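For the sake of transparency, this paper describes our internal protein records without simplification. The record that follows is passed on verbatim for readers who wish to inspect the format:
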Amino acid sequence: MHDSLYRLVHGVRKIAAGLRPFSESVWPGARTDLFVAHESVYAFAARSVRGCDVLDAGCGSGYGSDLLARAGARSVMGVDLDRRNIAYAVRHYGRSGVAFCVADLEEFALPAGSFDFTIASNSLEHLHEPKRFLDRLRLLLRPGGRALISVPPIYSEADLEVHRGIHYHRSNLPVQGWTDLMQGTGFRVSAVLHKSDRQPDFRSHRPSALTVDDFTFIPAPVERLLEEPSIGAIYDLRV
């Protein structure tokens, strides 16, 4: 089947599932290379959430929140601006200890010290002012809390042009720009390099031959992220 036909089929299936057909949000019904790469970030985060109260900031269709809950999180709250995403998440993954709500990451308010761990996987680039979310995040995390923030790795002018062409992306910062922003938030900041020996094709709509085990995650000083290409620019923030 031609790739464009896969895209059409995936769009029809998303409509049938109650989701927006051609939004950027990935979902388990289309296990493309892009989906598996996103899933691998949640699988990495899942190593650290046992016994934690977790915020999934920009949860999309909720599959990642479910993965974190199954990894032993005490509770998971998935937040997303898209009502269709949240409705899908509630239908498929809502259960005791897992909650979903419609909210704007720049505006939503919860009590201070609500969470031990936060993941924001490819959501901050959708915000107009990501610093507003980061300022709120410092209040939401408990002492000793941690956040993993993954954003697109923009290293060149060519990368920047690609993301400028995606109308869902509103904060197209280069890696240096994100690094400066993260380091200015008051967190202790390090990086995690996202790697794979098998090059994913994020433009393809075909079913992926990759699994989460094809991706590796290497903790590193944040300076290394500026010098070494990474599938995703992942920041590890500590209170």
About this structure: The first strand starts at residue 53 and ends at 57.
